[in-house]
Write a structure and sequence with these properties.
Immunoglobulin-like; about 525 residues; 12 helices; seven-stranded mixed barrel; alpha+beta
């Protein structure tokens, strides 16, 4: 019997699998982290360490009732760090002394103070949406006390580190980078200025050093090769880049007006990891400035609210300084796939209003801890209003509903998204008939597709470690559908390599493309020969 849709969390199970309510990053949980720091004037000591280097103070931690000795504590190197502040974002290194010490398998904890986010839900909500379509960090909340005093309510974000990479890509040995912003004065002589981490190719390897942070032991040659192919041989880019995952990331950034990213002026705050197949995979960075809190898309003044609401879904498509966007989307098929991803994210999260219901749930969850946080940066009144109205006279942080309600309407009317994609329904594998004696020895997949499809493709693999393959589905009356042109498409796949199959359907019209399941990156159909007989 055909199983329901299979949710595939990643290529490998985490070595210490998180189970149900014990998941440290369970979204609706508030974690309790109690730190004991013996250092006198520990705030001043942490200020000094952050200003002068990257060292940790030794401390003890109690995390949800479990004790951990000799951990490392430091202030994170974030935009929000200020000397003498009531609170700063924290990083905890549980394996600072004991290399095997971890909480539920996690050795490094990132505690964000939600810079320029009076709602305190941008990161948690943003990552929750992102994880439907691509590997992205988990996030929830944590109340932190230091030496018995309430230090504050923080957003608890999963670190993008070797553990994250192993969980999602099956290894952590590949080349690994983070895109960072630099200043004009730090640009080496002879290098292009203000290109930031835009993946622009340069002949001199020294030009890359200030724009990217190498997080693996080596890999500069791999990054340079990626930018060279992107610049000079974009027709080969799918040999070194996971293109579809990149299109998902770019669609996410655009819909959520996440401009503190590759899609913004400084092309920053994203990771690139080269997996064992030689493909670089983009990974989202911090989302505390998503939903229009960071408003710079191009050189010049910040965008106003109306401009953020009406941000072009094809932003930067003609800009040479954004090759990841320009070079990918100049291909008509890739542009249609990108717009399909924009449409999916829009329809499944914003056009239906789900994002606002979820935002209100998250605020109800943290309301009391927020009120009790005397070190918070925003008032409770600003916290409440921030979902629906702009907060601040200087930073002018858009209300999330204020931004996204109008943005959703604008995107639905945008000419680039107005085309109606093919509709895919009734996806099933064909089984042996009740009175048939011959066994089913191959996979024949059938789907109903209407709204003028020009091409329908079955995308399949035998197991989750395989690369996907494609075979075109036909509506010609010769593949077990009733008759040619009846809207029933079929394709046959050999079962010689495996008795198990995982698959999804792609259908393309002249102007649009659709997928079933829509979030096929993590949700696939599956079947087995034994179920068909």
């Amino acid at each position: 019997m055909n199983k329901n849709l299979l949710f595939i969390v990643g290529f490998l199970l985490f070595s210490l699998a998180l189970q149900g309510q014990d998941n440290f990053y369970q979204t609706d949980a508030i974690r309790q982290i109690k730190l004991t720091i013996k250092q006198e004037n520990w705030k001043g000591a942490l200020d000094s360490l952050r200003k002068n280097g990257d060292d940790f103070l030794v401390a003890k931690a109690n995390i949800d009732g479990k004790e951990y000795a000799n951990i490392g504590v430091k202030y994170r190197a974030s935009r929000s760090f200020k000397i003498g502040a009531k609170r700063n974002a924290l990083q905890l290194k549980l394996n600072f002394i004991d290399k095997n010490q971890a909480h539920q398998g996690y050795q490094s904890l990132k505690l964000s103070d939600a810079l320029r986010d009076p709602s305190m839900i941008r990161e948690v909500l943003g990552y929750e949406i992102a994880r439907k379509y691509m590997p992205a960090p988990q996030a929830n909340y944590a109340q932190v006390t230091v030496n018995g005093e309430y230090y504050g309510l923080f957003v608890n974000v999963e670190a993008v580190n070797t553990q994250f990479l192993t969980k999602h890509f099956g290894d952590s040995e590949g080349s690994f980078f983070k895109g960072i912003a630099t200043t004009k004065n730090s640009t080496p002589e002879g290098c292009k200025k203000n290109v930031f981490s835009a993946l622009i190719y340069e002949e001199d390897a020294a030009c890359y050093l200030k724009n990217y942070e190498l997080k693996s032991e080596s890999g500069w040659d791999d990054l340079i090769q990626l930018t060279k192919i992107l610049a000079r041989q974009p027709n080969r880019i799918d040999q070194v880049l996971n293109v579809d995952r990149t299109l998902w990331m770019l669609a996410f950034n655009n819909v959520l007006v996440n401009l503190n990213s590759y899609s913004g002026r400084q092309s920053q705050n994203f990771y690139l990891y080269q997996d064992s197949t030689g493909h670089f995979n983009p990974i989202l960075g911090d989302l505390n400035l998503a939903f229009g809190s960071y408003k710079s898309a191009v050189v010049g003044s910040d965008l106003r609210l109306k401009q953020l609401q009406e941000l072009d879904p094809l932003l930067h498509v003609e800009e040479a300084y954004k090759p990841l966007i320009k070079q990918l989307l100049q291909d008509a098929d890739r542009e249609k796939i990108y717009l399909s991803h924009v449409r999916t994210i829009l329809q499944e999260n914003f056009a239906n209003g789900d994002y606002l219901d979820r935002a209100e749930e998250l605020q109800r969850l943290i309301q009391v801890p927020f009120i009790n946080d005397n070190n918070r940066k925003y008032s409770f009144d600003e916290f409440k209003k921030s979902l629906k109205a702009t907060i601040g006279q200087r930073s002018r942080i858009p209300g999330i509903k204020e931004l996204m309600a109008r943005r959703a309407k604008m995107l639905r009317k945008n000419p680039a998204l107005r085309a109606i994609p093919p509709a895919i329904t009734a996806v099933t594998p064909q089984k042996r008939g009740q009175y048939e004696s011959a066994s089913v020895n191959d996979f024949t997949i059938q789907a109903n597709v209407d709204k003028l499809p020009q091409k329908v493709v079955l995308v399949y693999r035998y197991n989750k470690m395989d690369a996907f393959k494609q075979v075109e589905m036909k509506d010609d009356g010769k593949n077990n559908d009733v008759e040619a042109g009846d809207g029933i498409f079929t394709a046959k796949v050999s079962a010689d390599a495996s008795t198990h199959l995982e698959y999804y359907i792609m259908a393309e019209s002249s102007a649009a493309v659709s997928f079933e399941p829509s979030n096929y990156m993590f949700q696939l159909y599956e079947t087995d020969i034994s179920e068909l007989n």
